[in-house]
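Narrative progress, year one. The postdoctoral researcher (J.K.) led the effort to move from monomer predictions toward full complexes, under supervision of the PI. The following entry was the first complex the group processed end to end, covering 820 residues in total.
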Amino acid sequence: MSEIERRQFDTLIIGAGGGGLRASLQLAEADLSVAVVSKVFPTRSHTVAAQGGMNAALANVGPDNWHWHMFDTVKGSDYLGDQDAIEYMCRTAPKAVYELEHFGVPFSRLDNGKIYQRAFGGQSQNFGGDQAARTCAAADRTGHAILHSLYQQNIRAKTHFFDEYFAVDLLQGEDGQVLGALVFNILDGKIVVIEAKTTLLATGGAGQIFKTTTNALINTGDGMGMAMRAGIPLQDMEFFQFHPTGIAGRGMLITEGARGEGGYLVNADGERLMERYAPKAKDLASRDVVSRAIAIEVREGRGCGPNKDHVMLKLDHLGEDVIQKRLPGIRQTCITFLGIDPAEAPIPVFPTAHYTMGGIPTNRHGQVVVPVKDTPEEPVAGLYAAGECACVSVHGANRLGGNSLLDILVFGRAAANHIIEYLKENRYHRGIDNAVIDEVVEKVRRYDQPGSGNETVAGLRDELKQVMEEHCSVFRNKEILKQGVDKVEQLAERMKDVSIDDHSHTFNTAKVEAFELENLVAVALATIHSASAREESRGAHSRTDFTERDDISWMRHSLYSFENGLDYKPVRTKPMSVESFPPKPRVY
Amino acid sequence: MKFKIYRYNPETDTKPYVQDYELDNVETGTMLLAALLRIKDEQDQTLSFRRSCGEGVCGSDGMNINGTNGLACVTSLDSLKQPVEIKPLPGLPVIRDLIIDMEQFYKQYRAVKPYLIVNDPMPEVELQQTPEQREQLDGLYECVLCACCSTSCPSFWWNPDKFLGPAALLQASRFIEDSRDQAFEERLADLEGPFKLFRCHTIMNCVNVCPKGLNPTKAIGRIKNKMVTRSL
C-alpha cells in the first residue's frame, strides 16, 4: 500500500467543534504540530447550535461560587457524576469563560460592563437554596459565538486543518497504543494515514440514533464508533438526555434560556404544570424532571393540540423587547418552522433527544481509560477524548443545561495540557504496521464497487432511528427494552448487506453516510444494552418497572464493549479537595 | 412536487445537465432540505449536497433556489414556484452537483484578520463592554458563512480574488466595531485601495439573500464612513 499518503503530526484532533478547537488552539500556541480533521468545515460543527449559554460561577448577577455549582452538578447528575472531575470543571469554569471572552466571544453584557448571566435549570445558591443565575450568554446564540471565535483564534494560531476529511478508524500498535488514524478526503476520496504521537477524539454526540432529535445530521457518534472498534468500551450510554422543549414533532431546540428568562409550560387546561412536579424550582427543575413531567401530562390526557401530544411553552408575557434582545434566535426558528411568533403565541413542545451523557471513558485529564485486570481506569497510551463524545464523567445520569459548553472548553483545554506534558516524554512516532493500515483501506474500498447486498443505508438508518425512538425513550421497561435489544442486534447483523449506488471518488456523500451508519449502529447497541441492563431509575434513565434509584446496586458506571458486553466500575465519589456530596433524594 | 436540479460529476460528465425529480405527498410547511434528503434517500443516492444542522445555524446548505440564493433548510417549499429549480451557488467552481469549492470565499474571510486583536495585557477577568458597545455588534456577529451573499454579488463574481466580498467585509466590520479590539487603524488601512472594499457598488443583492437577515451593505457603509472620518 505504498501509494497511500502519510502525514505526521504531534497531535491529531478528530472533530472541530468547541472541544477540538479549544484543544487545537492550546496545542498550536505551545508550538506543537497539530492536525484537525473534520468531516465538515469547522464552523458547521454542532457546537454552533448551542443556544442558552455556559455555566460559570462568576457572580456577575448575584452571589455565587464554584462550590455551589459543583453541588448542583453532582445533584443534577443524580450522583453518578465523578466528583473529582466535577470539582475540576466547576473550579476552572470562570477561567474558561474569561479566556473565551479574551478570544473575542461577543457575550451579552450587564449595565456594569460585565458578562450577562441568566438563570438556568438546576442552579441554586448555597447548596440547594434560591435560584442562581450562572449561565453566561451571548443572546441565545452562545454556541455560534463561541465556535466562531475559537475558529478565528485558530486561524490566527495557524492550526493545520483537514476540512471535509472523514476519519474511518484509529490505527493501533500491538499493545493497543493509538498511533493515529486513517482518514479520507471527501473531496476526492484519497486515503491519508495520519500518524500522530497523540490522538484526541472530539467528535461530539450521537443524537442521530433517534428519530426526533435536536442534533444535526452530522451527529452520528463517529468517535464513539471508532473507539468501540478499537476495543474501548463506552460508558453510561443508557443516559441520553431528552430536552424538555424541542419543537413538537420537528425537533428544533428551544433553549432552556426561554424558561430562564421567565417562560413557563402549560398543559391543555392552561395549568402551569411544573408547579405540581417541582414546587420550588418549577420550570427550572433539572431537564430529566421536566421531560418526565411533560411525558406524564401527555400520557394522562392533558396534552395540547388535536392529538393531545404536546404541551405549550408560553413566552408572550415576557414582551417583545425581552424576546428580541435575549431570545432572537429561537424567535426566528419559531417563525420559520411554525409560523408562530413566540412574542404573540405559545410554542408547542415535547421532549426531544438532545445530548449523549455517556461516551468514551476518560479521566479528568482527557486520557481515555479502560479496565485492565484489577485496575478500572488504565490510560490507553496516546489516546484522548473530550466533549460530548467523552464521558469524564461530569454529567453522570443527567446533564445540567449550560454545562455542555463548559465541559467541551474545560476538558478540551485540559486534554491539550496533558498532551503537552505527554509529548515531552514521548518524542518520537512509533511507526504503524502496514497490515493494520491495509485492513482499514480494504474497508474503505468496499464501497468503491457495486455490492451484492440489498440493504440501503437510508433504509437501515430510518429503521434504527424508529426502533430507538420506540424502545429507548423517556420512559422504559424490561419488555420494551428487551425487544429493542433484539431489533438493534438484527439491524447490526444486516449491516454486512449494505451496498450503495454511488461509487464516485468525488464528494461521495453516500459513502460518508455508510460509515456514519456503522457508527450509529455501534452507539445504539451500546445504548440499548446498557439501558436494558440497568434495573433502577436514575437521572435520564427512567424505568417504569424499577421506579427508584438504587444506590446499593447501581451507583456505578456502565461499560459496554463489543468484546465483553457489559461491565461496571465504581463512581469516583471523592472530589479533589472538598468533602464528598453523598447521595440524597433529589427534590427540586 | 417537481424539481429541476443541476447535476455535474467531473468523473463522468463532460458538462452539467439538469435532472428532473418528482416527490409525492409533500406536506405543507416542508423545507427544501427535507425534500432533497427524501430524493437522495428514496430515489437517487448520487445527488450530492452539503447539509448539517437543518435549522439555519451551520450555514452548510446554501444553494440557488429558483434563481435566488438561500439555505435549503429554512426555505419552505410552500413559497416556491414549481418546478423548483435548484443550482449550486453561482460564481465559484462546482465540485459536484450542488457542492461548490468555497476556498476563495474562506480565503477572503481569513484575509480580514477575523479575530479579536488586543495588545494590552489581558485582565484576570473579562474585558469591560457596556450593553451599548455590545449592541454595535448585533447584525454583524451572527453570520454563518454560508456564502449566499458573496456568491450573489456581481462585484465578487468579477473579482473574487481582489474584492473581499460582503461576507468578509461584514466580518471586518464586526471587529472594527468591537470596543475591545485594538487594531482599528490597521484594519481600516488594510481595506484601502480600489478593490478590497471599494468594489462594492451597493447593488444590495447581499442584503436581499442573507438568510440571517443581516445587512452587509450597511456594514460596508459603516466602514466607509469610518475611513472618511479617519482621513479628515
